[in-house]
Structure formats: structure tokens, C-alpha cells
Amino acid sequence: MSDESDSEEHFHDSGSEEEDSDSATESDSEDDSDSLDGTANRDPTFRENELFAPVVEDFDESEDKIRPEFGVSRRTSPLQMLQKFLTDGIIGDVVRETNRYAEQDWTRHPASYTDWKPVDLAQIWQFLAITFMMGLVKKPSIREYWSTDELIQTPFFATVMSRNRFQGILRALHFSNNENYTGRDRFCKLGSFMHDILGNFSSAILPGKNICIDETLLAYKGRLSFRQYNPKKRGRFGIKMFVLCDCAFKFVLNILPYQGKSTPLADRTWVKDLGFGGATVLTLLQGYLNKAHRVVLDNWFLGPKLAKIMLAEKTYVLGTVQRRRKGMPKMRGKLAKGRVETYCDDEILIERWSDRREVCMLNTFVPHSMRIAESSNPRNTREKPATVLLYNSIMGAVDNVDKSIKPYQSVRKSYKWYKKVVFNMIDVATYNSMILYNHLHADQRAVPYKDFVMKIVREIQEKYPTLKKPIGRPPTVPRTENPAFPVRLKPCHHIAVKHLDKNGTPSYSDCIYCKHHAEYSPKRKTTPFSCEICKVRLCIQGGDSCFKRYHTDIKLKKISTTPQNTQSQPHTQISQPRLPEDIDTLGPNAVQFILSPNHEIVVFDEDGNPLTGAQFSDESSLPPI
Fold this sequence. Notes:
Blueprint: H1 4-7, E1 12-13, H2 20-34, E2 47-48, H3 78-82, H4 88-106, H5 121-136, H6 155-160, H7 163-172, H8 193-202, E3 210-219, E4 228-229, E5 237-246, E6 251-257, H9 269-284, E7 294-297, H10 304-312, E8 316-320, E9 340-344, E10 349-354, E11 358-363, E12 370-373, E13 382-385, H11 386-394, H12 397-405, H13 417-440, H14 449-463, E14 496-500, E15 509-510, H15 512-516, E16 526-527, E17 529-531, E18 536-537, H16 546-552, E19 569-570, E20 591-594, E21 600-604, E22 610-615
Parallel strand pairs: 3-7, 7-8
Antiparallel strand pairs: 1-4, 2-9, 3-5, 4-5, 5-6, 8-11, 9-10, 10-11, 12-13, 14-17, 14-19, 15-16, 17-18, 20-21, 21-22
Helix pairs in contact: 2-9, 5-14, 8-13
Pfam families: DDE_Tnp_1_7
Protein name: PiggyBac transposable element-derived protein 4
Domain PiggyBac transposable element-derived protein: 77-434
């Protein structure tokens, strides 16, 4: 258990001078109402070293921790679990507001949006996949994630999204309409993002008997009116958040960000009666009162008055408490190491215990008793109050969240504080998804947070693949065509059309086959005919015409199939060839050409008029011209 001085944290506002007065006023009201020292604040009703026998209601524990209506099971994948919190509706709002802000910001900074294209839901998930991996792969700057230097290269990022596109989305990323800004709600920049995610958190599980509230600090050193300073935290400066967790499940149930005087408390009058810490506790517990929960708090929140109010709401409390809180009994002198004093009335028990330093415990449901605390070091095995052992065993849920997330958090340095809050909320949603996933697979080894994030990224790659834009010269073969079996060899109707110019005379162009195969036709020929399917000019004269060779020669060398000039209107197009009864009916001036590798033939006269067609089982049976 941490010492009393360690758990007592003094936060100071360090924002702008204009708005700093709001937070200072509220902090002063907390000290004036619930933290003053002196005999006038001592409660004379406490009895010293007497038996405390609380009447405690049993908690109705549910067998299934996850609510059935939440819709998850063992078959739910990590990404599907995360999308239960980050729903399509939430991501859709991000898409809409990001595109809206890009249009608004373009009028002020057009140079920053020269290559901008509106984002969609798939690209936001690709963007999140990159931010997840940035938490796992640490580099000093965003630019280095797309570096081609073989010493530091990480190919994953370039395969998902270009650097310019990522930075463009990061710049335009928005969550509310700036035109709706009123100036009172300091978290209006988040829109409904945080509210919707927290609603999904509370609808996911049924909390157990023990729940706890603690504070955490999201590091931020930028200019912000409600920025906090805590020298005992590693980041020191940042945005303070109060977190409600299920102790056994270690699941985040609710979060209340500190905003100074505009913090959204359920009842502003609680600040005057209970201090800001007590008002925070009652706000976070809305929806969890009158259910016989055991709430664990530290000495920043807890006081005798708050304990009695919660007891009236059939909610029990356990935690450390400061001696200077209003309503505390008068405690004289110093205790010798290992000594215990108790003070109780009909509702609460206060224990004063001296270990390395004095600790005061307050609770409303555990009678006083001393138990042996075993230790691997025999010198540390000694008696401790049962409340201290219980507090140590169930208080670390919020610390467990920080321990899991912070080594791999996707939050990066940013001038926009609300973006850091959003990325932190996404990390918390990922953490809660991991808790549910491991609970549903309790018979298997628990998946650590890092591995769980990697599973999500791989699923995003599969569900939202990146469609790459072709680079360089257009290919000679259409991208949708299988090079092993090109369109020219497919057994379909390769229809020949005759092209006429504006005056109605035949429009001639080079035969593409004669042009590239001098061994078959030493003299280059021109022709008015082209294949409608392949879009190439081919001469159709001769028993072994270029049209036939082009559509039947499997070993044909690669030639350019760029469509030639076909602006003139075709004279005739045949879709269903007629089959003759006798090939001798063909006139002496008839011209023939091949339709497909099945040797299906359509015959034209010299002016391009269709005469008839036939099928032959052998190329040698083709009639001469």
C-alpha cells in the first residue's frame, strides 16, 4: 500500500491567466468546505477503540460479466470487439467532420490541401492502423516511418498509406463542427465522440462488487487553461482525468475529464458540501448507486461526509483519508510503530495505523481486525489492519490500465490537445476490447496488449486493403486481363467493323499484325477493318489472314495493343453470324475473316457488306479467296 503522502496528490492549474481563476476558485472551495483543520471541524460523536459492527447488504453478483445484449462471443475477433466500442456511427461522424473541417480550413490554408481528397470509413481505419503501429514502433518523427533508409526502414507504413496522405488526414482530423462552438463547453472540440464511447463502455459489462475511482494524467505541455501540474507524476503537466474501474475485471467503466469550473458534474452544489473530489465521485457513480457496490477511493476524494452520503445511497466505501478532513475525530500525538487506534460511530470506522508513517483508513462495511501479512522477507512479515490488506488487493485497477497502455500508446506530440484526448480514448477502447477478449477465452493464455493491437492491425489490413494507384507508363495489357490467357484468345465473338471517314470513304490505318511480324507479311499493309473487342486494326484478306493469326496464335509475341484511330463510324457490325448450307455459294470476290479460336467465320464482300458465315473443323478447309 502506498503511504498517505504518496497517495495525496496536489494538482495546480497552469494554464492561461484569464481562465485560471475558474479552477483556482473551485480548488479553494474544496479546501474551505471539506479539508480544513482545527477543533471546530472535529466530530465529537466518534467513540475511540470501540467495536464497530456495520450492517451490510449483500451484493447481487451476476454470473455472466458481459451483458448478453452487447453481442460478443468467443467467435468475435479482436477488430470486431473494438468496433463494438468504435462503432460505424462514431467513425462515420469522424469522417463527416474531418471532410467538413478540410473544406473550412482550405479557405485559410489552401497550400496545405493541394492534394486533399475526402476521406471515407476505410481510410480512417487505415489511419488508425498506422497510429496503432506507431505506438509499437517508436521513432522520433513521423517522417522517419516512411524513410527508405535501409537502416531504419519500416515497409509496413508505406504499404498502408503514403506519408502525405497520413499527414493530411492528421491535419484535418476533426470531431465537431467549429460553427457550433459556444465557448462554454471546453470539450466541445470532441463533439459526441467521448460521450458515445463512454456509453458503449457502460453498456458492455455488469460491474462486480468492488469498483474503484482514481485519477490519471494525460501528458500535455501546450497552452491550455485547465492543464494540471503534479510533480509526483512522470509527465508532471497534462490533462487530469478521473477513471471509474471494475476492480476484479479491471475494465474501464467511466471517465470524467477535469475542465476546471466547467467540469460536467451531475450537481454543482456538491462542490460546496463535499469538495470537488466528493462531487467527482458522485458524478462518476451515477447509475451505480443503490446496488450495494463497494467503492475504493484514495485520500484525494474521501471524507466522512461523503462516506455517509454514499451509505444513504446503499453504497459502501473504503479508502485512505486525510486527518485534516472536516468531520474527522481529533487525534493526539504520534503513534508508535505498529500501534493502531480506532474511531467509530454507528456508520463509519476510522483506523489510525502507524507503519513507516501514519496511515488513516475509513470504511463503512469492514469491522476492525488485524491480520498477518506474509512476505518473502521474514523481516516484513507483520500484522496489518484488514482494511489495509483489502485496499492493497483491489485498488490497482486504474494503475493497471496505465501500465498496459502507456508503453504502446498511440498518442503523439500535438498542438491540438483534443486530438491527444481522442487517441487516448481509442487506446482505452482497445484495452477494454482486450479485457473482454481474454475473458471470453479464459481457457487459453491471455493475450497481452501489444499482441492484441497487432491482431487488430492485421485484421484492418485484411478488411480494408489499400488500393494502390498504378505508377509509371500504362501497361500494354489491361490490368483486369490475365496475361496467361488474353482477351484475344477467348472464345467470344470477335466482330470486325469497317471504318469510314466523314465523307463515307473507307478510313485506312496500319494493320498491327503486319507491322510487327515481317516474317508473315514483308510488306506493311493498311486496312479499314478493326476488331471491336480487341480495339486493334487487322487486315482480313487471305486464307491465312492477320485477323485469324492474331486471334489463334498462342505464341504470339507481345505487341502494343494501344487502340488506334477509330473515330470514324463503323459501316457494319455483326453480332450473330449466319451459317450457310454450302460454302460454294460464296461469290468470287468474297473476303473472309476469323471471329474466334473456334474458327467461327463471318464473310464480307469487298465493300464490307456481310454475305454469310460458317464453322469449320479444320483450318485447311477454309475456302480460298
